[in-house]
Write a structure and sequence with these properties.
With 563 residues, this protein is an alpha/beta fold. It has a seven-stranded mixed sheet, sandwiched between helices. Strands 2-1-10-9-6-7 form a six-stranded antiparallel sheet, with no helix packed on it. One of its GO terms (cellular component) is nucleus.
């Protein structure tokens, strides 16, 4: 058993925090006053009646003023009583003057005993969103005893669904008409592509053409511990107090609220999927707005900055076409450099900004969106796939011959992902082919070269060959046999090579991923070849991509890397 509740407050979330004390079993009226600091005439001096029940750790709430209050993201109606509990959100005016219910010490789940007799579900007709729990004859004394209902409440909360959420979900089935026939009236989890994408659809989500999309970590929430990464699935709090109010405003203005979050840890087992699902449900409940959450598990096509999650949103939007011109994405992975604001660290990536660029939707950082800060400095990747040179010149000089009539050796030089194999298969397919990835050692490569030459064939060596030592093995054969050797250098930049490597991963599941560390190491050790090494000619080769279909081309021309 948890300790007996000793005090109850409503704690102000906006501007300078302040508390209003709620004594046990004593009705208190809160509204426009010196105590709250509210001078808004729309807020009555007796705006809301609050009565705390310490024994049950609940507060009965009743709107008394003419203008609606807000409760966990939903509008109240005058003279309708409902039940609030620890950490529930109360707005004295809908969307304004936010407070949070706070019991001290915080009660445990099993102390949330709620009397459920004689209730009706009231609909907010204009937004057609929630059903409020109406307690016509709620008695503070009567609510203290009912073991069966206590156990029912404990079961509901242990499953990650609060009492209010259950009431909303149950009530939604009683709606005689919905503003959108495809609205989700109950929470659901879906898994796609063998668990690579998870989608949570909270109760009463409505499919709409305008999308207000948000990253999650560092955008809507932050850790309570102050650590960069959460220590567990309970280590979170809202980034700003105004997060619920802001999202509610956009929902009221006709936006569908969506979260896109990369969660590679779910694929490694570092985070349990069941724990993370409960975390998502709790975050959505805390915000108090219908939200659809897309979770990229691992590092495939769904992970930002690629647009797999957005494409899934388009399929899960009730056949309503998305209006990108009036949609937006908010995220903290924005490519901001070190000290973009005094003392601020460099952003961990650019994934959110790059996804927005890939989609062609407006982008803002959390500071711009929630705090109205000016646009900060940021850096885009050096390689922009949309600006890829469309030159038809495969090589430099342009008049260089790619193949010769006489027997020869061709030594390829280039990093992984530079397009060596692509070039060889398209332009040197008549030559004998030697590749260390398949033969596994340079000794076997040497033996294969000798075998092709003994057969009178020309041969191409498709290895990285970054330095004179690795190249010397083949120039020595050229000298001994008096067979000319030419060097073909891929001009592909390091950033372009990494892009190519990522593209191959995305379109070819059988492709073995190449770590960016390997590409970095190659570039670090690279020594440009010279004629003095024994080459008859050195030719620069431009990488010119080719595609199986238009879908592949569209993907290639997007930002695929997170930085």
């Amino acid at each position: 058993m948890s300790a007996t509740v000793k005090s109850c407050y409503i704690r102000k979330l906006e501007k300078s925090p302040s508390n209003v004390y709620l004594p046990d079993n004593t009705p208190i009226f809160v509204g426009r006053s010196l105590e709250t600091g509210i001078a808004d005439t729309k807020c009555s001096r007796r705006q809301v009646r609050l009565c705390a029940n310490y024994a049950e750790a609940i507060v009965t709430v009743q709107q008394v003023g003419e203008h609606a209050c807000g409760f966990n993201g939903f509008k109240t109606q005058k003279d309708v009583r409902f039940v609030a509990r620890h950490n529930d959100r109360l707005e004295l005016l809908y969307g304004k003057y936010a407070y949070e219910i706070e019991f001290n010490p915080p009660p445990r789940v099993k102390n949330y005993a709620l009397r459920k007799r004689s209730y009706e579900l009231e609909a907010d007709k204009t937004e057609n969103r929630a059903k409020m729990l109406k307690l016509n004859n709620y008695s503070d004394e009567e609510s203290r005893n009912d073991k069966e209902e206590d156990e029912e409440e404990e079961r509901s909360t242990s499953n990650g669904v609060s009492f209010n959420q259950k009431a909303f979900t149950a009530g939604s089935s009683a709606l005689s008409e919905k503003s959108n026939n495809d609205s989700s009236v109950s929470a659901k989890w879906d898994s796609f592509d063998n668990g690579k994408l998870l989608i949570y659809t909270s109760p009463l989500v409505q499919h709409r053409s305008k999308i207000a999309a948000y990253d999650m970590d560092g955008t809507l929430i932050k850790t309570k511990s102050g650590l960069v990464f959460p220590k567990d699935c309970n280590d979170w709090q809202l980034l700003y107090p105004d997060v619920p109010g802001k999202l509610k405003q956009f929902h009221t203005n006709g936006y569908k609220i969506v979260i896109f979050t990369n969660q590679a840890g779910l694929s490694t087992g570092k985070v349990k999927v069941s724990d993370f699902k409960l975390k998502i449900e709790n975050i959505v409940r805390k915000i108090g707005v219908p939200i659809q959450v897309f979770i990229a598990v691992g590092k495939g096509i769904y992970r930002k900055p690629t647009i797999g999650m957005w494409e899934s949103l388009e399929k899960e939007n009730g056949n309503i076409t998305i209006d990108k011109a009036n949609s937006f994405h908010i995220g903290d992975a924005a490519g901001r450099p070190k000290n973009w604001a005094p003392g601020k660290k460099k952003d961990h990536s650019s994934a959110d900004r790059l996804m927005a660029l890939n989609l062609g939707v407006k982008f803002e950082t959390p500071e711009e969106h929630f705090l109205k800060h000016k646009t900060p400095p940021y850096e885009l990747p050096k390689f922009n796939p949309k600006n890829l040179s469309q030159t038809d010149d495969v090589c430099k000089p342009a008049n260089a011959k790619l193949t010769l009539q006489q027997q020869e050796m061709v030594l390829m030089v280039g990093s992984p992902g530079s397009g060596k194999s692509h070039f060889v298969k398209n332009y040197l397919k008549e030559y004998g082919y030697v590749n260390r990835d398949t033969l596994r050692s340079w000794q076997k490569c040497i033996a294969a070269v000798e075998q092709y030459l003994n057969q009178g064939k020309s041969v191409v060596i498709d290895n990285t060959n970054p330095d004179p030592t690795s190249r010397h093995r083949y120039t020595e054969i050229s000298k001994k046999r008096n067979i000319p050797i030419r060097c073909f250098i891929m001009t592909t930049s390091m950033e372009h090579a990494k892009h190519n490597n990522k593209f191959r991963e995305l379109i070819d599941p059988s492709h073995i991923p190449v770590s960016e560390v390997i590409i970095n190491t190659y570039m670090k050790n690279y020594v440009p070849p010279t004629l003095e090494e024994g080459f008859k000619e050195i030719i620069e080769i431009n990488f010119i991509p080719s595609f199986r279909n238009e879908q592949d081309r569209n993907l290639y021309e997007m930002y695929l890397l997170e930085n």
